[in-house]
Design a protein that fits this description.
This protein is mostly helical. It is built from seven helices and no strands. Helix 1 runs antiparallel to helix 3 and helix 4 crosses helix 7. 28% of the residues are buried.
Length: 203
Amino acid sequence: GDVTTVLRVAIIRRMKWTLLLLVLTFSANAQSPADKPAEAGETTTAKKGDPKLHADAVRLIELSGAKQRLQDNFKQLVDSGVKQMMEKCERCTPEFAAEWKKRFLERSSLQDYLDVYVGAYEKYFTDEEINELIALGKDKEASKTATPSPALKEKLTSVMPSLMGEAVGGCAKIGAKLGAEIGSEIEREHPEYMKPPADKNRP
């Protein structure tokens, strides 16, 4: 119903804010967005069946500290999302919001969101490029000067806008699906948590 629609819109907006943290982490080397969209080519096809590429992409995401950052900020971001939801959902009571937040936090898997990023890096980068990104990350940790090779720098500038757009979209879908399911459940199980629809015939 209308509540599910409101929830989905609010969740997608919230997920975009959540993923902004990851965007800032992963696009540190791609300060200048490409003026043109990434050209379709072999790198835009997911390289399925390459366990080493997958393992290295997982290692890159782990090295970025994204999981810890997401864990540290997830509850706060959900609180922000609930606030936005309440501003837009006229029928939602505070009880509805509290129950939705409780269920969303209980049932959210941060790994699902991180897996979207792993898949995106697998799709857009070769194993050699991912290993160069890992080496750059380690150099930064050791306070060494970390400069990507000209080829990698060009690749980052070229593909990062597309990669991030895909990853944010994928994560937004996960959050929106779960949030809408929870909203429908609560509406069904606890009708008392919903205010009656406004009478539109009233002056």
